[in-house]
Amino acid sequence: MPAILAIESSCDETSAAVCVDGAILSNVIANQTIHEAYGGVVPELASRVHQQNIVPAVQQALFNAKVSKNDIDAVAFTRGPGLLGSLLVGVSFAKAFALARQIPLIEVNHMQAHILAHFIAEKKPAFPFICLTVSGGHTQIVLVKDYFDMEIVGQTLDDAAGEAMDKTSKILGLPYPGGPLIDKNARNGNPDAYQFPEPQIPGFDFSFSGLKTSILYFIRDNVAANPNFIQEHMNDICASVEKRIATILLNKLKRAAQQYGIKHVALAGGVSANTGLRNLLQQMGDQNGWEVFIPKFEYCTDNAAMIAIAGYHKYLKGEFIGQDVAPLARMPF
């Protein structure tokens, strides 16, 4: 019954979790509000706040799990990808904890962990399955053949889906973080009120730079004609943008599932918390006879529970790493 302490610090959430024999006993997330004043994550500030948060987060995770630090058998941590300064805090803490306790270290790929979050719940996808992984920094369609046998079959060529939502929120004058506010306003809007273009990218790859430009010009032109356009049509704008981003993602996902003959389809990453995307995926699943897997909200955004479950499966395989490990801002998948 291995007890694993997990650390996640890839961006602006400091998270610690405890996993015992594959069961998540605690998952503590410390958010950083300091970035709200800047409209986005400031890497230097993020790393400083991680230093302040990591010890209290770990202490709380151990307390919530009713597990002593002396009972921990291994430490799993996010090695990358992510912000280098933020990763450095988590990696350094994990190395120090493991060295002091003379226990193994387990490196985890942040994007693989988002996918493996599906194995926290009782209802788990069967291999092989297709996973659409969407966040502020990544957009990928992944063919998952086994826990760590994954193939990226499609990805963004420029901006990520989450970044497109964040950029839209800035154009609309919404405060940071804007993605959840787009989602909130969209629930009261008409998703067919406005039409935005769908990029024609070959294969299963994505592009969102052109869509962002289209949204920018749409808002600019309408505000020029009516200075109150945004305020008067906020809900409809958000709903229309959300639907277009979701359909861009899901149309590619549908084609990938059909090409590979997959009936188990999963959603992961921070944007998987978006209500519109979740609902449309479920509808598409019903239409195509898929079994759809969507994580609980707490496991969608960056969290250490997903690092813990990935670490658990690596522990079972004996995949440990030495103390000379360094963080990687870009980590091979």
Structure, explained:
It is a single chain. Helices cover 43% and strands 19% of the residues. It is α/β, with parallel strands linked by helices. The chain folds into 2 domains: 3-115 and 300-317, Nucleotidyltransferase, domain 5; 126-294, Nucleotidyltransferase, domain 5. Helix 1 runs parallel beside helix 2, helix 3 (110-116) crosses helix 9 (304-317) and helix 5 (179-186) crosses helix 7. The radius of gyration is 20 Å and the shape is globular.
Q: From the 3D structure, determine the CATH topology of the largest domain.
A: Nucleotidyltransferase, domain 5
The count of DSSP E runs of length 2 or more, i.e. the number of strands, is 10
The CATH H-level homologous superfamily of the largest domain = ATPase, nucleotide binding domain
Q: In this structure, how is the largest beta sheet organized?
A: 5 strands, mixed
Radius of gyration over all CA atoms, rounded: 20 Å
End-to-end Cα distance, whole Å, is 28 Å
Provide a compact summary of the structure.
The chain folds into two domains: 3-115 and 300-317, 2-Layer Sandwich (Nucleotidyltransferase, domain 5); 126-294, ATPase, nucleotide binding domain (Nucleotidyltransferase, domain 5, 2-Layer Sandwich), CATH 3.30.420.
Descriptive tags:
2 domains; alpha/beta; 10 strands; 333 residues; globular; five-stranded mixed β-sheet; Nucleotidyltransferase, domain 5
